[in-house]
Structures are given as structure tokens and as C-alpha cells.
TrEMBL record:
Residues 14-23 have a biased composition (Basic residues). Keywords: Membrane, Transmembrane, Transmembrane helix. It comes from Pyrus ussuriensis x Pyrus communis. It comes from the Eukaryota. It is found in: Membrane. This is ALA-interacting subunit. Coiled coil: none annotated. InterPro entries: CDC50/LEM3_fam. The keyword ATP-binding does not apply.
């Protein structure tokens, strides 16, 4: 009997492990929950509410975008002398050619300050994997990581030592310059606070200074003042925030005076940046801003489209409910009920 009792009562070490969870309202899914029932009336009201909210927002967005005054000037081909029209690359690569170009722009409407200055590049793939990786964020942040250049190839070293900032992104820094005047009066261009505050505080160190930058055999773009820390080089910070699309705009500066309608602005351009080797385009953009930013009709059109579609669906559901109403909870339309009554199973 003792042996039998011992066999029928195994010790705890021989008990089978169970994966069954302990009982709780959470494991048994017995917690209180909200389970709304979408009745035809509630669905119609939801669609109507969305339409009533979205359509005014879309109209306001379109109106705000329409009030933005924008001038886009495509200058890369116009700034090439006629004798270099068939060989633009030779012109831009030669150190002996005069890169100064004077263009005149007419203001179509009054542009209230601040007037934002952008440069736009087309067919420039800043999102290319090897290009994006060719940088050292640690080196940009702190002087103690000056020699951390493993990801910066091929722009890591020169004969004089390590390059700061290293990598292809910094090396290809945009270097066209713009000067503006109206009636022979120079317009100041402010470059203060043209970058993100988070970049200035967290990504670029105040103890990091340019070193051996653009001193190799092949010059990629603009040079940097070696006496100014990277945290104050705002043109560099704007450029280093790489664009996701091959056509992009980057902020160059601001004109902080009003520009009157029909005024003629003289723009003196230093056409230095090489976009001709990859058939890219360069554009100068002057633009005001509204509460939604620059000129952009996409947001307004999207809101109007969604709002109009919701109102259309609300009307369609209302007509369907009035023409062919269905009692709430009616299960006669279910496939197994139709099958039991001789219908087809879907």
C-alpha cells in the first residue's frame, strides 16, 4: 500500500511542467472593454463630421498657399558664356573662367519680410546609401572623436592629416553665393538661425574646428573658415541634413525688408557649384511664408479630397438606408442562414 501510495503521489520534482497561465481577468480577456456598435446613423454622422471639419481646413490651406509670393529662377544654363555652351563642364571646372553672373528679377507682388532665399537642386541624390553614410557624427559633435573617420571614405585624410569635417556630405557643400540689390542699394542677407536648433545644440560641437578641409587634390564644394567652430557654421549644418528626394530646397538666408511690387532686383551670382557633370539643375528661389509654410497646394487638395469623399459616402449610405433599410441585428443576410434556407454559400 505504501508503494502504491508513493507511485500515485509523485514528488514535486517529477511533476509535469504546465504552460497554462494563472487565472486572471487579463489572461482570460475578461477586462471591461468598450465595444461600440456602428449603426447606420452613427456611421453617417461620423462621415459628415469628418467632411465638415476637413473641407474648411482644406480651403484655408489653399487660401494661405495662394497668398504666398514665390519667384523661381533657373540660372545654371543662363550663367554659362556662349563660347562654353557646348562644354559647360569645362567652364565650371576651370579656375581661370569668371564665375560671376548678374541676373534681374521682377517682383510680381509685394513680398513682406522676411523673404526666404533658397537654393534648389534637381537630380542630386543626397539619399544615396554610400553618400549618406560618408560622414562621422561623432567627429562633428566632439573634438575628442577627431580621428573617428572609419565611415568617411574616401574623404578621410590628406597629406597633412585627418579631415574635419570628413566625408562626402561635407565635402560636397554647396558653394554658389548670391548678393541682392534694388536701385543700386545693397540688400542684407541674414544667415542667423537658418538651421534647426537641435542640430546646432546636439549635432555640431562648439569645440570642433575645420581642419584640412578642401585641401586635397579634388575640391568638392565650399570651403570653411577654420577659426569658426562647426556649431556656428550654419550653411554647413543646413547642408548636412540630407534630403530624402533628388529634388530639394535648402535655406540660404533671409532678406528682412519688404520688397515692393514691380521692383527689379539685381542678383549677383557666383556660379561655382558643379551640377553639370551629372546634368543637374540649379535654381534660386525667393519666397514668403504663411501659417502652413511656403507655397504648397498638396495639403489643401488632400484635405478637400478626403472631406469631399466622406460627404459623398455619407450621402450614399443615407440613400441606401432610406431606399433599402435593414433592421439592426438582422442576421438573415448571413451566408449560413441563406444556406439553411436553400441559398448559396459564399
Amino acid at each position: 500500500m505504501e508503494a502504491k501510495d508513493g507511485a500515485s503521489n509523485p514528488t514535486s520534482s517529477t511533476k509535469k511542467k504546465s504552460r497554462k497561465p494563472k487565472y486572471s481577468k487579463f489572461t482570460q480577456q475578461e477586462l471591461p472593454a468598450c465595444k461600440p456598435i456602428l449603426t447606420p446613423a452613427s456611421v453617417i454622422l461620423i462621415f459628415v463630421a469628418i467632411g465638415i471639419v476637413f473641407i474648411p481646413i482644406g480651403l484655408a490651406s489653399l487660401f494661405a498657399s495662394e497668398r504666398v509670393v514665390e519667384i523661381v529662377h533657373h540660372y545654371d544654363k543662363d550663367c554659362i558664356p556662349l563660347k562654353y555652351a557646348d562644354n559647360m563642364l569645362a567652364y565650371i571646372q576651370s579656375s581661370k573662367t569668371n564665375k560671376t553672373c548678374v541676373r534681374k528679377l521682377t517682383i510680381p507682388k509685394q513680398m513682406k519680410s522676411p523673404v526666404y532665399i533658397y537654393y534648389q537642386l534637381d537630380h542630386f541624390y543626397q539619399n544615396h546609401r554610400r553618400y549618406v553614410k560618408s560622414r562621422s557624427d561623432k567627429q562633428l559633435r566632439s573634438k575628442s572623436y577627431e580621428n573617428t573617420t572609419d565611415d568617411c571614405a574616401p574623404e578621410r585624410y590628406t597629406a597633412k592629416g585627418v579631415i574635419v569635417p570628413c566625408g562626402l556630405v561635407a565635402w560636397s557643400l554647396f558653394n554658389d553665393t548670391y548678393k541682392f540689390s534694388v536701385n543700386n542699394k545693397q540688400l542684407g542677407v541674414s544667415k542667423k538661425d537658418i538651421t534647426w536648433k537641435s542640430d546646432q545644440k546636439n549635432k555640431f560641437g562648439s569645440d570642433v574646428y575645420p581642419k584640412n578641409f578642401q585641401s586635397g587634390g579634388l575640391i568638392g564644394g565650399a570651403k570653411l573658415n577654420s577659426s569658426i567652430p562647426l556649431s556656428e557654421q550654419e550653411d554647413l549644418m543646413v547642408w548636412m541634413r540630407t534630403a530624402a528626394l533628388p529634388t530639394f530646397r535648402k535655406l540660404y538666408g533671409r532678406i528682412e525688408v519688404d520688397l515692393e511690387a514691380d521692383a527689379v532686383i539685381t542678383v549677383t551670382i557666383e556660379n561655382n557649384y558643379n551640377t553639370y557633370s551629372f546634368r543637374g539643375n540649379k535654381k534660386l528661389v525667393l519666397s514668403t511664408a504663411s501659417w502652413i509654410g511656403g507655397k504648397n497646394y498638396l495639403l489643401g487638395v488632400a484635405y478637400l479630397t478626403v472631406g469631399g469623399l466622406c460627404l459623398f459616402l455619407a450621402l450614399a449610405f443615407l440613400l441606401l438606408y432610406l431606399i433599402k433599410p435593414r433592421p439592426l441585428g438582422d442576421i438573415s443576410y448571413l451566408s449560413w442562414n441563406r444556406s439553411a434556407s436553400g441559398g448559396h454559400i459564399y
